[in-house]
Amino acid sequence: MKVKYNRVSTITQSGDRFTMDKDTYDLVLFDKVSGSVSFMERPKGKELSQLIEESKVNEVVVEEFSRLGRNTGDVIRTLEWMEEKGVNVVVRNIGLQSRPNGKKNPIWKMISSVMSSLYEMELENIRERTMVGRQVYVQKGGVLGRPIGSIESDRDFLKKEQSQMILKNLKKGLTIREISKVVDCSSKTVIKVKKLSSVG
Q1: DSSP conformation class of 174
Q2: Which of 23, 29, 120, 197 has most Cβ atoms within 10 angstroms of its Cβ?
């Protein structure tokens, strides 16, 4: 089975760019989740992993390495696991395959490690630029947070996708700092979810 795996980081992203891919696949999976979430923890990532475990997949196609994740260690573990299962991974934007014609690609490991590191560094740069941008905005008189007078009930807050992900990780016993990194949110948000849900 040839499977295409697509991922976007947020609900507001539509994934329209994936429509440029006109290849034919047996199955196309689409996750809307942060790249910092481990591949095996994503809804469609789990589905794909199960199919691979059942030896139903021989090729996985992604647009770029960052679709598998933004954490170098996690991406490399995922790629090594797919390699062990005999799955050929195709990265479209650089035209690279892990097992072309069923044979190991000698430069695959080196390039995949370098590319994964670059994507992780890019994510850190984005976070830093966002933080600086917010600081400048506040210094110029801007106000962060929900508009004054807007009301969100605790129940609605806990129903949010991000809150549900935090709850799931709280139940697993992860620390506030670990969850903040995995879900890509502030520690304050994690503490609020923990307090409102009485988990842990």
Answers
A1: -
A2: 120
Q: What's the domain count of the chain?
A: 2
Domain that holds residue 71: 2-118
Which tokens in the block code for residue 31?
């996750």
* Closest alpha carbon to 190 in 146, 9, 177: 177
CA distances from 151 to 148, 154, 199 (A): 9, 10, 24
Question: In whole angstroms, what is the distance from residue 197 CA to residue 200 CA?
Answer: 9
Answer whether residue 140 is part of any domain: no
Higher pLDDT pick, 123 / 141: 141
pTM of the model: 0.56
Instruction: Give the pLDDT confidence of 57-77 residue by residue, as tens digits.
Output: 999 999 988 888 877 778 888
Are the beta carbons of 58 and 85 closer than 8 angstroms? Answer: no
Q: Where are the beta strands (DSSP E) in the chain?
A: 2-8, 27-32, 59-62, 88-91, 96-97
